[in-house]
Design a protein that fits this description.
Helix content is 34%, strand content 27%. By secondary structure, it is of the alpha/beta class. The strands form 3 sheets. A 7-stranded parallel sheet has the order 3-2-1-4-5-6-15, sandwiched between helices.
Length: 364
């Protein structure tokens, strides 16, 4: 399969190496950053230095490819998907942006190629897990999804380090959050719905953020009482972000906030990803609850270290592309994450990154 991979950043480089190493994919990595591309080219991966915001130049690179894998910032998702449609390519991305996903769904109507956005961790894997657990109940009452990408060793007041896209982080903190409450669809405020819990002896908080549910609200409308998604952080993070976004009014000047965070908050490769899904409902006349919990840790290989968010995000989209190539997903049109079968995902050579992670032993 000929793949045009858009973006050679933190996640894009990991995707490129994973797909290239199999020998089943002819990968061309497209980015405007010559330095990032040079690192991949040195490993024998084909690269193309292109301004990814130049539509004509980008379209020229997509023609003749089978599939577009988009690892660019969320605000370029609609453009990339539109060009994929025009060039007759299948399309996969990592976007958490609700508006972009809806636009891509419209693009996919009647398309002869497949369009599968939201293939990362959340949205992505978290929706696959929740849907799998929920379909095992005779009657579903509550579905709760909690995900966090956290520094293993927090040292600042926010108790946070940059582990992924600052654009995506601020986007999910600032936009309305879809949920189902009391059987009805609602739009909840970001950073609200604060709750606390402990896991393996560590205290966490969780609160509403945008985009993590993917298309689950639509899929489960009328079939569940409550369904929501919250981001997990260490206690105190939410209050400080509310101060920045609301009290200092940086929600209306997001570029300034992003600039501050990039300049003052160091990135880290020493992180942990927490996945925590709870589903309750009726089984054979009995009220039951099932839980899926995982902690995925960074790989500290001296030659090729990988952060936990790199591992989980790249594994999600690579597994989606791989399952599609194997004919285990629809061949055209819009593909929801919940159309992926969890056992097939975990058995996949890329999806095993989640299977081999340590299962959480205690939940308090």
């Amino acid at each position: 399969m000929k793949v045009a991979l858009l973006g050679a950043g933190h996640i894009g480089q990991t995707i490129a190496r994973l797909l290239h190493a199999t020998g089943d994919y002819q990968v061309t990595v497209i980015d405007k950053n010559a330095k990032y591309l040079a690192a991949l080219a040195a490993e024998g991966i084909v690269t193309a230095e292109v301004d990814t915001e130049n539509q004509a130049a980008l379209a020229a690179q997509l023609r003749g490819k089978d599939t577009v894998v988009n690892a660019l910032p969320y605000h370029l998702a609609i453009t990339a998907a539109t060009l994929a449609l025009e060039c007759g390519c299948h399309y996969f991305d990592l976007t958490e942006d609700v508006a972009a996903t809806k636009a891509i769904k419209d693009l996919a109507k009647g398309a002869k190629t497949a369009f599968m956005p939201q293939c990362g961790l959340a949205p992505g894997f978290i929706g696959i897990v929740a849907h799998h657990l929920a379909t095992g109940f005779d009657e579903v009452r509550d579905v709760q999804m909690r995900v966090g990408a956290l520094p293993a060793f927090p040292t600042n007041a926010l108790k946070y380090n940059l582990t992924w896209s600052v654009d995506g982080l601020i986007n999910e903190y600032c936009h309305p959050c879809e949920a189902i409450h009391g059987g009805a669809f609602i739009s909840a405020l970001p950073l609200e719905g604060l709750e606390h819990f402990s896991l393996d002896g560590t205290e966490y908080e969780a609160f509403n953020t945008s985009g993590g549910l993917g298309t689950l609200c639509e899929t489960w409308a009328g079939k569940v009482r409550n369904l929501d998604y919250k981001t997990v952080r260490y206690p105190g993070h939410r209050d400080l972000m509310k101060f920045l976004l609301e009290d200092l009014a940086l929600a209306s000047d997001q570029d300034k906030l992003k600039d501050i965070m990039r300049k003052s908050m160091p990135a880290t490769m020493q992180d942990v990803v927490l996945v925590f899904v709870t589903v309750s409902g009726m089984k054979n006349g009995v009220l039951m609850q099932e839980v899926f919990a995982r902690k995925i840790f960074a790989e500290r290989d001296a030659k090729a270290p990988l952060s936990a968010i790199q591992i989980t995000t790249a594994a999600g989209i690579c597994a989606a592309v791989d399952l599609f190539r194997e004919g285990k997903l629809p061949a055209k049109g819009f593909i929801r994450q919940e159309e992926v079968e969890l056992p097939a995902f975990l058995a996949n050579r890329f999806g095993r990154a989640y299977q081999q992670s340590r299962q959480v032993e205690s939940i308090g």
